[in-house]
Write a structure and sequence with these properties.
Helices cover 35% and strands 19% of the residues. With 180 residues, the protein is α+β, with helices and mostly antiparallel strands. The strands form three sheets. A four-stranded antiparallel β-sheet has the order 2-3-7-6, with helices on both faces. It has a two-stranded antiparallel ribbon with strand order 1-8. Strands 4-5 form a two-stranded antiparallel ribbon. Strand 4 and strand 5 (96-97) form a beta hairpin. The longest helix is centred in the middle third of the chain and has 18 residues, at 105-122. The chain is globular. The termini are far apart. The chain binds flavin mononucleotide. The site of flavin mononucleotide has 12 residues, from loops.
């Protein structure tokens, strides 16, 4: 395990992978990081589908537009983690949305996703969050039931190539003290 700030800053989106399996105990540690993610009232609305089958990966890849830079990663990575969420639980109380934002499932899944990415990186693996694809088509491929949505796909494996970090906004450009 490396230092947290180093993990946060050093994690890159990985789109090229080595032809090397992910050991089950490593995969388990990554899933353990999902397990300990914070969530709205501890609703834990996440569901994760672990895809290793090449044919299924092909079908999932087909849901991306050909211009998506993650196309190659969908097949090149030995594992694709598919992050799904239960609807109308996060942000809800007695069946009613409690805030103006309605369902908070995307928020909770975002946190769980970041836990996957950081844990993978700290263990020497790479990931890329894939969000731009035909979600309904991907849902059908994996048989995601009604009441759930498939939100993001994360190729996971040992990096073959690490790209340079895209530029970030400076702290002063997004931080507001006392008032916006
Ligand atoms: C919600 C979300 C969706 C994303 N969707 C895609 C995608 O469809 N294809 C892709 O290649 N990268 C995708 N990315 C990766 C971003 O492009 C990447 O995180 C960003 O450029 C910063 O680079 P870094 O992750 O290396 O720091 C996505 C990232 C997030 C957080």
């Amino acid at each position: 395990m490396i230092d947290l700030m180093e993990t946060i800053q050093g994690r890159r989106s990985i789109r090229n992978y080595q032809d090397k399996e992910v050991p089950p105990e490593i995969l388990n540690q990554i899933l353990e990081a999902v397990r300990w993610s914070p969530s709205w009232a501890n609703t834990q609305c996440w569901e994760v589908v672990v895809v290793k089958d090449q044919e299924t990966k092909e079908k999932l890849k087909a849901t991306l537009t050909p211009t998506n830079p993650a196309n190659k990663a969908m097949l090149g990575a030995p594992v694709v983690l598919v992050v799904c969420g239960k609807l109308q639980s996060s942000g809800y109380y007695n069946g009613e949305a409690t805030t103006k934002f309605g369902d908070w499932f995307l928020f909770d899944l975002g946190i769980a996703t970041q836990n996957i990415c950081l844990t993978a990186h700290s263990l020497g693996l790479g990931t890329v969050v894939v969000g731009l694809f035909d979600h309904n088509q991907a849902k059908a491929v994996l048989g995601v039931p009604e009441g759930y949505e498939l939100v993001a796909m994360l190729p996971l494996g040992y990096p073959a190539k690490v790209s340079a970090a895209p530029k970030r906004r400076e702290i002063g450009e997004f931080t507001h003290y006392e008032k916006f």
